[in-house]
Fold this protein.
Amino acid sequence: MINHYYWPTPNGHKSAIMLEEVGLEYQVCPVNILEGEQFDPAFIAISPNNRVPAIVDLDGPDGKPYGVFESGAILLYLAEKSGKLWPQDMARRHDAIQWLMFQMANVGPMFGQNGYFQGYCPEDVPLAKKRYQDVSNQLYGVMNRRLASSEYLAGADYSIADVATYPWILPKQREMHRIDISTYPNVARWADAIAQRPAVQRGLASLADSMKVGNPTKTTYDNLFGGSQFKR
Ligand SMILES: N[C@@H](CCC(=O)N[C@@H](CS)C(=O)NCC(=O)O)C(=O)O
């Protein structure tokens, strides 16, 4: 059994989709980040940077409970444990790892900042909006060029790199990031194909109604971006 510490955000969707893809037994342990549950010491013991997602595999290595935080590390762990979305060929496996790292180091952090300045920042900061929108478009360009010659990000086969990236390309994310998907037809083709996968649909349905986007209250703003974030 795997405990999935989760809230339905783009990073949370990654492990939700992966757990459905690989078919390992799991249970959802909601961590309501709007209400500040990510600051609970019991959760921080699993996820030291107070972020979802995290997992605890109750039947981990040597049969002992094993915790994993950081969504990319979770995808790698579940891929290795299940042998799924985990190419046996070394070059293919490292193709997937490279595009996973591209998502973790670029797409997630930069789109996240774009979303903050477009949707949450209490001040209008045009320079920051332009900066992160430009970087987001540049990253869409990288993916669009890759997907012109490759079915999926890591090659011919769907992989952990696609699982990591797709939740950041969902329509509601594109809207928040002010991305015109028609400019990136290969990304649109790829996203449409992934959206058809039943495991993706099941993963995205997990706690689907819980995340309110936009107009955060003072409490939710403090929990996500303000005082509560920085007081520890
Ligand atoms: N690099 C981390 C980022 C995780 C992350 O930023 N999670 C957000 C939700 S998408 C979160 O938990 N925010 C709560 C907080 O900032 O306190 C990962 O990929 O797991």
About this structure: Residues 9-11, 33, 38, 50-52, 70-71, 108, 224, 229 surround glutathione (CB under 6 Å). The longest strand covers residues 2-6. The chain has a mean pLDDT of 95.
